[in-house]
Amino acid sequence: MDFDFYLSFVTVNWWRFVIVAVAAYLLGSINTAVMVTRIVTKGKKDIRQLGSGNAGFTNVLRSVGKVPAIITIVSDALKCVIAVILGGIVFSFIGTESQVLSNEFVNCGKYIAGIFCILGHSYPIYFHFKGGKGVVTAAALMLVEDWRVFLCILTTFLIIFLVTKIISAASITCAALYAPYTFAVTFIFDYLSGAGYSLAYVILSTCAALVIGIFVAVKHKENIKRLLRGEEKKITAKK
User: What is the pLDDT of residues 49-85, one digit of tens each?
Assistant: First the structure.
């Protein structure tokens, strides 16, 4: 299979892309950090005006508390899982006699859903387009899309976090390694192993991972500046 085939595939199935993209974006726009903070503070505070100003798990943990943070991380992951599964289902109805080709289509649907869910999380239409950085939603995409890549990312995250105690450092490192991990796993285990996946799929999945990685890294630009200055806060157990 070559890229011309994928181009014709997109031309014929453009409406599937639109459905998946819109649905995933709207799901991603349900920002739990904002909602939970408003509920806990009885509408008096906005998480985007507390702490780092980010509408995500880490800022909720620091500014609001552990229970709201747990609710936030679970909900942010769940909405992306739902979006990605939906994307896979929509693309699973494309008729093909090849199971491998069908799997490639399903995975394409998952990537599209994941990307737009992350976009919705970061720029939620329900909350004036100001949301989080997409780390948890990206992790959920990785888990549903390819558990092998997810394990590589999770291992890397835990190692960096245990060494530095800084969530942003671990998140940025994982964002940078998402594309290389995706290429290595799909190229070795899906292409070279004789599983039947095309090189075009390996490249396209790597490009999708690269887009997500760059997006998450850019959203952490202020964290990167603080890391370089040695001012980024660590997560430590309170006595």
Answer: 998 888 988 899 989 999 999 999 999 999 999 999 9
Residues in contact with 165: Cβ distance below 8 Å, sequence separation at least 6, in sequence order: 234, 235, 236
The CA dihedral of 113, 115, 116, 120, to the nearest 10 degrees, is 130
CA 114 to CA 21: how far, in whole Å?
9
Residues in the chain: 239
pTM of the entire structure?
Answer: 0.90
Model pLDDT, residue 3: 64
Closest CA to 178 of 118, 89, 105, 88: 118
Token pair of 77, please? 């992951």
User: In whole angstroms, how far apart are CA 185 and each of 109, 169, 226?
Assistant: 19, 23, 33
Please give the pLDDT value at position 239. 38
| Residue in the structure block whose two tokens are 């997409």 | 134
